[in-house]
Amino acid sequence: MDLKQLIREIPDFPKPGISFKDITTLLGNPAALKHTLDLLETQCLAMRPDYVVGIESRGFIFGMPLADRLNVGFAPVRKPGKLPGPTHSAAYALEYGSDQLELHQDAFAPGSRVVVVDDLIATGGTALATAELIQKTDAVLAGFGFVVELADLSGRKKLPEVPIISLVQY
Ligand code: AMP
User: Can you say how many angstroms the Cα of residue 48 is from the centroid of all Cα atoms in its chain?
Assistant: First the structure.
């Protein structure tokens, strides 16, 4: 099954020059959704995680069902002011804009292995900030799983030297 054919490209969204990779068309196809989770499951299982971290908000869509399939816990990385407990925070740059991300300080048991999941890696700024958040805890960053990778932007080169998988590349 060619997942790329099920990802819709919207030119000039959310601003001119950005080709937005819309995964809602993939999500709407039950066979494609199952295949996506099957691939993430197989490839992220090899990273031997104790937790999956999903990055707000499209990382939640894939991260939570993946955590359930892997029989591990899930922790959300969220935009500022959303998490109620004590948080770590890290700044990041987007392909379009900049922001901060937060993670609960007590999200993981010490020494746990954590796999980070998001729908897409572009410049890698979001994923790098998430790696920094995990490094502020006593957990171990075990790898990254992305559905889509914009390979020309070389985002993976920014990330720590852990396994990085993506299912569809542009
Ligand atoms: P970056 O920090 O540059 O790697 O950007 C990754 C984040 O921005 C992910 O959470 C994506 O959901 C979103 N994003 C960036 N560029 C695009 C794009 N061209 N299409 C869809 N989402 C994007």
Answer: 16
